Task: inverse folding
């Protein structure tokens, strides 16, 4: 029912400079696989096989990663090294990939609105690939959310409890608890001070959005930091209709920060990576 997944990948990744000066943050590897490939695999596992990237200048290598490299294929064809390409070949076989460019970085909300041309009038997933989500041995986070969407048919944000001294890095929700880990959102604040935060439930980089979000985004003025905030648009959607927040099963690593990136690297190396 949901076929498309949007990947906003246009940000500058300033926290990783100088590594991200000429290389996209999303191509930084966690062990031997770029961050964005983990996100795309999660989308495809959830049945979202039409992958749409909102890219920007300097992000060409993302488009190249999701295409055949003829020279490489030719060089290693029939050798023992072919196995190293198996994960990306499998992604290429299962998915389709399209992209559009965000010319000015006006925030995540603006990036999502830029993706409208690739999504059209249907519900879609959004994955921020710098949030790496793992649910080892269980269902991926996007697959869990797709299952909920089938039940509720409204926008869903993934949330996680975070310590109050970190809350001002996130969009934060408040809502009525419907059942364990599921809330009907009635308030949302982007990057609040701890004293103003409506809860400790922080929105992380997984969303399912209904397409009316595009009209709402068009009318959403720039908010915190002068950027068009998806949180502001979602609050309008929650007040006019329904938005759910879901405390997902699994772990999430904030790979947009150096600490989270190193933690993810150690976790994947110790628990997931298998030398070929
Ligand atoms: P972040 O603020 O975490 O990413 O945006 P950033 O701007 O790349 O990182 P820093 O803070 O400079 O280190 C969250 C996500 O939204 C995308 C980013 O690519 C990232 O995946 N984004 C953000 C856009 O695509 N366009 C924007 O205008 C802003």
Result:
């Amino acid at each position: 029912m949901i076929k498309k997944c949007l990947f906003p990948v246009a940000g500058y990744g300033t926290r990783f400079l100088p590594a991200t000066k000429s290389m996209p943050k999303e191509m930084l590897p966690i062990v031997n696989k770029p961050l964005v490939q983990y996100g795309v695999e999660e989308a495809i596992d959830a049945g979202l096989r039409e992958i749409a990237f909102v890219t920007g200048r300097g992000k060409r290598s993302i488009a190249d990663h999701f295409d055949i490299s003829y020279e490489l294929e030719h060089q290693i064809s029939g050798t023992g090294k072919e196995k190293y390409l198996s994960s990306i070949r499998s992604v290429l076989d299962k998915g389709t990939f399209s992209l559009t460019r965000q010319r000015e970085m006006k925030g995540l909300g603006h990036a999502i609105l830029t993706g409208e041309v690739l999504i059209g009038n249907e519900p879609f997933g959004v994955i921020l690939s710098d949030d790496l989500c793992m649910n080892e041995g269980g269902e991926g986070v996007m697959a869990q959310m797709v299952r909920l969407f089938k039940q509720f048919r409204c926008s869903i944000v993934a949330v996680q409890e975070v310590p109050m001294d970190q809350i001002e890095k996130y969009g934060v929700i408040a809502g009525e608890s419907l059942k364990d880990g599921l809330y009907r959102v009635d308030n949302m604040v982007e990057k609040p001070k701890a004293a103003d935060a409506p809860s400790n439930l922080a929105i992380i980089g997984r969303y399912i959005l209904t397409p009316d979000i595009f009209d709402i985004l068009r009318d959403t003025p720039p908010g915190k930091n002068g950027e068009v905030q998806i949180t502001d648009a979602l609050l309008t959607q929650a007040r006019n209709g329904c938005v759910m927040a879901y405390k997902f099963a699994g772990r999430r690593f904030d790979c947009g920060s150096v600490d989270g990136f190193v933690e993810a690297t150690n976790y994947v190396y110790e628990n997931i990576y298998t030398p070929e």
About this structure: Residues 4-271 form a domain with the Spore Coat Polysaccharide Biosynthesis Protein SpsA; Chain A fold (CATH 3.90.550.10).
